[in-house]
Every structure is written in C-alpha cells, then in structure tokens.
Design the sequence.
C-alpha cells in the first residue's frame, strides 16, 4: 500500500460566540450623534410659575384698594375738593350756555345781529342813567342846607316810583302795545310768562295785560277747558300787553331770533307790535299786607 503522506491539519473551527448584530453601528457613535431628550418640567412647577403673576396682581390691587379706601382726608382737603368741584361745575355750565347762545347767533341774519347789539347798548345806557340819577340824589342829600326837607322830597318821589312798580298808581308814558291773536288756542301760560320776562328784561316799567295789572307777584295758570288765568282772573284772547318803556328797547327785544315773536308764530299765533308816544296803564291792584315777611333790622 502506498504510503500516505502526512495529512494536512484541518483548521480548527473558531469558537462560536454570540453573533454580532448586523446593520447596527457601534453604540458609542450613535449615542454621541443623537442628543438625549431634556426632561420635561414637572406640572406642579409650571402651575406655580403661571400663577405667580396673577398672585402678584391680586396682591397689588389689594394694596392699592387699602391705600385708597377708606379715604383719609383732612378738613382742609375736603374743603378744597368741594371748591374745585363747584368751580368746575360752574365753568361747565357757563361754557355750555355760551355755546348754546353762540349757536343761536351763528344762524342769525345781519339785521338781527345789529338789533341785538342795539338792544345791549340801550340796556347799558339805561343802567348808566339810573346810576347817574342815584348819584345825583345822594349828592343833593349830602350838599343840601336843609337835609331834612330834601330827604322828605326824595322820599315822596320814591313813594310814587314804588307805587308804579307795585301797581297801586297809574302810569303813563311812551311805550308799546303788543297784541297776541290766538285763534287756535295754542298760546299757554308759560308763553305769556316768557313774554312778560322779556319785556321786563328790556326795561318795561309798567305792564298791563288786558285789564290785569302785572306786579312782582303776578302768576299765570292754564285753565282745564282752555284759556289762561292771570292772578286768578280769566283772560281771553286776543292778549293785549300795554307796556310803558322805551319803544326802541322793547320792540327789538321781542323780535330777536328765537325770541317771543318767533315762538308765538311757531304756535300758529300772530303778534302785532305798535309803538306809541303815550300809553296809559290804568289797572290797579289792591295792596296786601305781608303775612310772614317783616322789615329786617340792620
């Protein structure tokens, strides 16, 4: 038999270990490339963080409320506050009335504006004349050699003037006659009162409506069945105002824009003004003794 040569030793099989995972790279590079997720904040901490500004606001409001209420004002501060409030209210009312007056004048015609200016000038002149008369009377009393006699004369003159104002003495002089025709019965007591107030403001010295003398305590009322009462006496239309005063002052006062004549015409009434050199106010009133008012001692 032929000799067999030495056999080649077969490689020993490597020990089988755990197979390496395929397709997975080294663990350390993977950990280095992907950052680990940050831990989420705890819910309790988040709620505290959210509620802290609200708590601060509530605390600030409580401190502000505690500082403002109850108010700690001294008497001097309270007086100053009241004075400032009164001043502000007065200024607001004045500004509003001025704006209303300006709005009425803004739409007026040129001749109406001229008439208003003439009326204001007449009022100023009338006041200056009254002032001059009073100063003249005072000078007579101070310079008269017989002051007692001069005082008596001034007293009699004053009694006559007061009698005209009180309605116990007849009056005559230049003036106007205002006739208000009201066929529709739309003229009410307040309209007649506005007419009276406008005449007084324009310098009327004696006024008579139909057969009723107008004095300081004259009042107007509406009747349930229509018509107007003056001092408890029924007065029927046409209403006739007999007025003693300067016609150049009385007529423009009634014809101003938005005044008496325009108001009456808007209520379907007709106002007619007649200027006269001499009118007579002959209706009288019975003087009444005051029940409660007494002369006050100086």
Sequence:
């Amino acid at each position: 038999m032929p000799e067999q040569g030495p056999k080649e030793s077969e490689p020993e099989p490597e020990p089988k270990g755990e197979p390496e995972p395929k397709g997975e790279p080294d663990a350390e590079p993977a950990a280095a490339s992907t950052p680990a997720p940050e831990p989420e904040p705890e819910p309790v901490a988040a709620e505290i963080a959210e509620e802290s500004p609200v708590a601060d606001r509530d605390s600030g409001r409580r401190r502000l409320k505690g500082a403002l209420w109850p108010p700690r004002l001294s008497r001097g501060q309270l007086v100053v506050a009241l004075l400032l409030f009164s001043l502000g209210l007065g200024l607001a009312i004045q500004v509003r009335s001025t704006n209303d007056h300006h709005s009425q004048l803004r739409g007026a015609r040129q001749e109406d504006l001229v008439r208003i200016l003439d009326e204001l000038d007449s009022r100023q002149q009338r006041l200056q004349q009254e002032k001059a008369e009073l100063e003249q009377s005072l000078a007579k009393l101070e310079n008269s050699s017989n002051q007692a006699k001069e005082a008596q004369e001034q007293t009699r003159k004053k009694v006559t003037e007061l009698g005209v104002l009180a309605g116990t003495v007849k009056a005559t002089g230049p003036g106007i006659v205002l006739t208000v025709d009201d066929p529709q019965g739309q003229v009410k007591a307040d309209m007649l009162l506005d007419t009276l107030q406008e005449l007084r403001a324009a310098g009327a010295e004696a006024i008579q409506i139909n057969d009723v003398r107008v004095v300081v305590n004259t009042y107007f009322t509406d009747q349930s069945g229509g018509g107007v009462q003056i001092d408890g006496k029924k007065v029927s239309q046409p209403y006739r105002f007999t007025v003693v005063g300067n016609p150049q002052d009385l007529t423009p006062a009634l014809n101003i824009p938005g005044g008496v004549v325009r108001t009456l015409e808007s209520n379907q009434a007709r106002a007619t003004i007649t200027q006269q050199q001499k009118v007579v106010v002959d209706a009288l009133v019975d003087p009444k003794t005051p029940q409660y008012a007494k002369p006050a001692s100086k």
Remarks:
- The first helix runs from residue 27 to 33.
- Strands lie at 171-181, 206-209, 212-214, 220-222, 228-230, 233-235, 239-244, 270-281.
- The chain has a mean pLDDT of 76.
- The chain is about 50% helix and 15% strand.
